[in-house]
Design a protein that fits this description.
Layout (H helix, E strand, L loop, with lengths): L2 H11 L2 E5 L6 H17 L4 E5 L18
Parallel strand pairs: 1-2
Length: 70
């Protein structure tokens, strides 16, 4: 099975997906995180998808992290 099919299989397993990034995020990390969230949300609208991490105030224009609700 190729890597893409494996990723899709894992995404399908869960109702909630949390995408975390490393501390001290740079534009690559932020862009990847927010893009992955957008892709998953568009392909699987029934999933709850959250992007989390320490705020990167100087790169706030990339997007805002989510707060996970209970």
């Amino acid at each position: 099975m190729n890597i893409y099919k494996q990723i899709i299989k894992e995404i399908k397993k869960y109702k909630t997906i949390v995408i975390a990034r490393h501390i001290g995020a740079d534009p690559d990390a932020l862009g990847s995180q927010f893009a992955l969230k957008e892709i998953i949300t568009n392909l699987f609208p029934d999933k709850k998808v959250y992007s989390v991490g320490n705020p990167a105030s100087r790169f706030r224009f990339f997007g805002v992290n989510d707060k996970i609700d209970d």
